[in-house]
Write a structure and sequence with these properties.
The chain is mainly α. It has 15 helices and four strands.
Length: 304
């Protein structure tokens, strides 16, 4: 057990970690005090606390002993922030909005790595080539059982959330504040004082939703799907839908599922079933686009 370790608090690391509710913190505190020690190690990097901020707070309040584990000192701060997001995604009690936020941060980090890679003339021998943004999106999607388009939407969501006042950001990620992606986008366009005023108005019951508070018209809430409009088919003509239309509709349905889950405060069995069905349909359609009936084993075996 570690008795005297000088630990520094980095605000960026602390902000990236999940915040417990008051009830969750009291339960954590009771468990640690009863065990008379902190079982899970605190993670440090150059003496800065990376993971375990709330456990460390229990130590400061009650003096219970703890152990530490140091991350590789060769890592850069950006690498440590990515480590935190991946570690957070591995938690069982992660909320849907938090999962979206961390997936978005990881995809954004991949884009930055790609940009840096292009600027470098050569990679030093032995250096691992960073994964592309598309590869990271696919990896995160497969791990969480979502569509890659969902992950790309999560990146936009994370960037928008980071423009909110810290207290509103925390309320949104914790599920205390309910808002659709469109509402969050409109809220982020306001100044911080106006953001706080709008959210206070919703919490006080003056407005029913964030959309009402920011002046978003109800007719604007349902603007989803492809922006391009096709000419209506004439009499006797069959309406055609091209590949871009179908991809747009898949993306729109994915966003709709995520927004509905956010509003309802979680991903229930019906949401997961719809999401899985949509993912399978998209994968089947993508394979069908590339299919050549005369040479396709799948079609020849099944008769499709």
């Amino acid at each position: 057990m570690v008795a005297n370790v000088k630990i520094q608090i980095d605000k960026d690391f602390e902000a990236r970690c999940r915040k417990l509710t008051d009830e969750e913190y009291r339960q954590l505190e009771e468990n640690i005090v009863a065990a008379e020690r902190i079982r899970e190690k605190l993670i440090l990097w150059h003496g800065k606390l990376v993971d375990g901020h709330q456990r460390y707070q229990v130590h400061r309040d009650h003096g219970v002993p703890f152990e530490v584990e140091e991350l590789d000192p060769k890592l850069k701060k950006a690498d440590v922030l990515e480590w935190i997001s991946r570690n957070q995604l591995g938690r069982r009690n992660l909320r849907p909005t938090e999962a979206r936020y961390h997936r978005g941060l990881l995809l954004s980090a991949a884009e930055k790595r790609q940009g840096k890679k292009k600027k470098e003339a050569e990679l030093t021998s032995g250096q691992i080539t960073p994964k592309s943004k598309r590869e990271v999106a696919k990896e995160l999607a497969e791990k969480d059982g979502v569509h890659p388009d969902t992950v790309r939407g999560d990146e936009r969501f994370a960037k928008t959330v980071d423009q909110l006042a810290p207290v509103i950001k925390q309320q949104l990620l914790s599920g205390e504040l309910k808002a659709t992606d469109r509402e969050v986008t409109e809220l982020a366009k306001l100044t911080v004082p106006n953001q706080l005023q709008s959210v206070r108005a919703v919490r006080s019951g003056q407005y029913k939703s964030v959309g009402d508070a920011v002046g978003l018209k109800r007719s604007d809430w349902s603007k989803r799907g492809p922006k391009k409009k096709k000419k209506a088919a004439g009499k006797g003509q069959q309406k055609t839908v091209d590949d871009a239309d179908l991809e747009g509709h898949f993306r729109a349905l994915t966003r709709l599922l995520d927004e509905r889950a956010t509003i309802r405060g979680g991903q229930g069995p019906h949401h997961r079933a719809c999401q899985q069905a949509l993912t399978e349909a998209y994968a089947a359609w993508t394979a069908w686009k590339k299919c050549k009936p005369t040479k396709c084993d799948v079609c020849n075996k099944t008769g499709r």
